[in-house]
Amino acid sequence: MRELLQFIYYAKGSAGEVRSMCYALRGLEGFEAVQKQLVEILGLSESIGRQPGAWAASQRGGRISGSRYNAK
User: Which of 8, 28, 42, 62 is 20 to 30 A distant from 22 in Cα terms?
Assistant: First the structure.
């Protein structure tokens, strides 16, 4: 179970990295032509980032010890 939660947190972090890169690209010159796609990717990454968060919350009620895994 601990490995599953670790994987879920990695997935959530990866979605955050995608959002970060999209925000950075939106501010750079030369990416004006793909602004619409960046906004779409931002929306998808926000939705996808919420899914592992909810999954982790549902798993934290188990028998895993440690403050990171049992935080509410």
Answer: 8
d(CA 64, CA 32): 47
Show me where the domains of the chain are located: 2-59
Cβ contacts of 8 within 8 Å, gap of 6 or more: 52, 55, 56, 59
Contact 50, 6 (CB under 8 A): no
Could you report how far apart the first and last alpha carbons of the chain are, in Å?
A: 17
- Report residue 63's pLDDT band, with 50, 70 and 90 as the boundaries: low
Identify the pLDDT of residue 41.
94
pTM of the predicted protein model? 0.67
